[in-house]
Amino acid sequence: MRFLSKHLEKSPVHARVIPFFIFVGITALQGSFGEASRFWVYGVKTFAGAWLVYEMWPYTKEVRWAFSWEAVAVGVLVVLIWVGLDPWYGKMSKLPDKLWNPHEEFGQNSVAAWSIILIRILGSAIVVPPLEEVFYRSFLYRYMVKIDFLGMPLNQRHWLSFVVTSVIFGFVHFEWLAGILCGMSYQWLVLRKGRLGDAMLAHGITNFLLGLYIVIKGDWHFW
User: Fold this and answer.
1) 217 burial level (CB within 10 Å; 0-12, 13-18, 19+)
2) Which of 86, 99, 110, 112 is at 20 to 30 A from 67, Cα to Cα?
């Protein structure tokens, strides 16, 4: 859609902020059109997110996947922290009466239920990392230090921004403490490697493994 591209190419801020907030806006609509919309809006959001990543790709050069063993280790470590810490601290709010469980909504082991689960796992592992990492670890981390944020190298350390950005990332999650530690871990990867791709990979691994854990254990409250 040329209309969006024209806005993204106007400034490096637009390219990193607009897709993220469109994605967040669609997320806010989940459940607004009846109980089933918690699921089908998530599907719409995933496909819209893939399109947003495609649109911002030419204007965000740091959004490129990269492999490192540190990224794999951090990705696994974060999911262990996310699950392991869960019983030991208070959350931002109470769990909803009905958890995000497609089997309850569409029938146990139905095609619809498994399709939604597959979309969520793949979407969280492939679509979410570029959108969130470019906003938090590339844009917000540097913009808090320097308005002309592209002039600040990705591996430049600024401890106040490191902490504040990670706290913001944590508090937009139900599991706020795990979210803060998660944000710090991904930012550490960016600082260590001087690129965004390792954090994207770690984020994708975390979300993928967490999705598998949820499905295998039936621990739907993590979603």
Assistant:
1) exposed
2) 86
pLDDT digits (tens, 9 = 90+) for 81-98: 999 999 999 998 888 888
Residues 6+ positions from 170 with CB-CB distance below 8 Å: 176, 177, 178, 179, 180, 181, 182, 183
Single-letter code of the amino acid located at 198: D
Count structural domains, the chain. 1
Please name the amino acid found at residue 190: V
pLDDT tens string 148-166 = 999 999 999 999 999 999 9
Q: How far is it, in rounded angstroms, from Cα 59 to Cα 61?
A: 6
Q: In terms of C-beta density within 10 A (0-12 exposed, 13-18 middle, 19 or more buried), how is residue 186 classed?
A: buried
| DSSP class of 151 | G
Q: pTM of this prediction? A: 0.95
Burial string for 159-182 (b: 16+ CB within 10 Å, else e) reads eebbeebbeebbeebbbbbbbbbb
